Fold:
Amino acid sequence: MARGPAHVPGVTMAGSFLRVACADCENEQVVFGKASSVVSCAVCGTTLATPTGGEADLYGDVVETVEAR
Ligand SMILES: [Zn+2]
Structure:
């Protein structure tokens, strides 16, 4: 899997990407702040984010916020 923020053309909804450190293995993974599906750690499979309909619930530490441009 590629790491780092994905460049998605044609995005119409403002949002931000969050770099989240997995609590179990310290893998850092970029998660969309309004993720619409469960995001799992690519290394150990721990759930990093679950959708709520708005801002996703995040598990682990947010290392950095990457604003969408
Ligand atoms: Zn992990």
Q: What stands out?
A: Residues 22, 24-25, 27, 41, 43-44, 46 surround zinc ion (CB under 6 Å).
